[in-house]
Amino acid sequence: MIGDSPPMQAIQAYIRKVAMIDSHVLITGETGTGKELVAEQIHQHGYRSRQPFICLNCAAIPDSLFESELFGYERGAFTGAMALNRGAFERANGGTLFLDEIGDMNLYAQAKLLRAIEAKAIYRLGGQRSIPLNIRIIAATNQDLERLVAAGQFRNDLYFRLNVASIHLPPLRERKLDLMPLCDYYIRALNRQWEREVEGFTDDVFGALLRYPWPGNVRELKNLLEATFITVTSRVITFMDLPESFRRRLREAEPPLTERDRLLTVLAATQWNKSKAAQQLRWSRITLYRKLRQYHVTVPREHPQQDASTHRRRQEKGHIPSNACMPQETAMGRGTGGPHLPYWELPDTLWQRMAVKIPSRKSQVGHPRTADLRRITEGIFYVLRTGTPWHACPRERFGPPSTVYYYFAEWVNTGVFEQLWEEVCAVHDDLQGLEWLWQRRGRKVTTSRKVTTRGCNNSGRPRGTCLNAR
To answer: Strands 131-132 and 121-122, how do they pair?
Structure first.
């Protein structure tokens, strides 16, 4: 199963649990969502994996041939029965029988099926002895069986017999976070099959795919990619490479973008760079993270550069801020032990270790009114890494400069900041080159007991602080 969205992760975990038991399973979901694939995974991960896995499409069996297909027949049972034939139940004995589209089965066939499940034995047509069964049944349908039961079109006893473990597969339009890994998977498979080197879609085409409702679900996506490979000649798939019929459906089914779709579209267009996405959406960074949590959006595995930090931006090679006052090699980062931080941002794992070392205050008297210690800590490292004066620390990103310096002075005087500095240096060796700046701006800091956070004085320094660090 391909998909990193929360619904698919929950389904994958449940499949592993269901596979370890021997109960019957009912899989529901729209056409093309992968019900047969789920049935195969349940069989492969269970203890019956070495036994047969037999698939039977109930919608394709004529009513007159249903019994012979399921139960088989003896030689001479009817005209034309020239040899013994084993039915699907007997062929799957010891393993798993997958009954696809069971909602299309008529009531007579349902009664025969229920009898075989309850008795765990069958009779071939024309046979005189029963054949015991050791079998697991997995049924699937794209219909609402509860509605069919209420309408009298499906036996309720058969429904409750099959619906022991229930798995519902969401349609692709409800898990569009999986669209990118699905496209990458099928493109790689088609590249191997057709000996091509197609890399993927352009940003505008993929944005249109995110807005498309996908009535055929994953099967429609697979068929679209296969049809596109017939005409595509470049490494990137554009609108003109898509089949004309699909381009027409895109124009007809263009729905108004929901906020979640807008978010996914912009994230895909920016290669999951959250900072650029926030700028295009005209949101603050905090708003973007709140929306990501609200809509349960996670970074796909194809973008591991986002995993280490929820804020990480890629530095352009050789870029130095205009207000940098440190040597060029330290501004760019001299280490080679892995990707470097931007000038201020902290990875989640690093911040979790740092947060443990920051003591909680027993009293809030005279304490700055803020709880965003992570943003304040990033502001401190921004000042130290760029050489920016304390009073010029960007207020809109890190909060009031006086608050940033207040915490810096407090943590320096209590010995906390030295521990935080060591944590960062242990992860990013480019900070080793800033030891001179830490000695000049940090270890000489003192603060009085009358520290306040209400802005800065006329000289540009926070009120109530003694800025020995120029």
So the answer is: antiparallel
Task: Note the pLDDT tens digit of each residue in 194-225.
Answer: 999 999 998 888 888 988 999 999 999 999 99
Average pLDDT for the chain: 78
Q: Is the pTM of this model over 0.70?
A: no
What the chain holds in terms of domains, given with CATH numbers, is: 6-170 (3.40.50.300), 174-306 (1.10.8.60), 328-466 (no CATH)
Beta strands in 131-261 (DSSP E): 131-132, 136-141, 165-169, 200-201, 236-237
Alpha carbon distance, N-terminus to C-terminus of the chain: 58
Residue 265 CA to residue 272 CA, distance in Å, equals: 10
Q: Are 138 and 97 in contact (CB under 8 A)?
A: yes
- Strands 236-237 and 136-141 turn out to be unpaired
Q: What is the pLDDT of residue 343?
A: 46
- For the four alpha carbons of 200, 201, 202 and 207, in that order, the dihedral sign comes to negative
453: tokens are: 């956070």
DSSP label of 143:
S
Beta carbons within 10 angstroms of residue 57's beta carbon: 14
Q: Please tell me the distance from the alpha carbon of residue 23 to that of residue 187, in angstroms, as a whole number.
A: 36
pLDDT of residue 323 exceeding 50, the answer is no
> What letter does residue 465 receive in the DSSP assignment?
E
Residue 427: CB partners within 8 Å, gap ≥ 6? 347, 350
As given in the structure block, the two tokens for residue 297 are 């959006």
pLDDT tens digits for range 415-456: 888 888 777 777 655 454 445 444 544 444 444 333 333 444
Q: Any residues with CB less than 8 A from the CB of 84 and at least 6 apart, and which?
A: 72, 73, 74, 75, 124
pLDDT digits 0-9 by tens, 357-415: 787 655 444 444 445 788 888 888 888 777 778 888 887 777 888 888 888 888 888 88
Model pLDDT, residue 101:
93
Q: Which two tokens stand for residue 191?
A: 């590249």
Residue 89 has pLDDT above 90, yes or no: yes
**Separation CA 241–CA 234 (nearest Å):** 9
- How many secondary structure helices (H) and strands (E) does the chain include? 21, 13
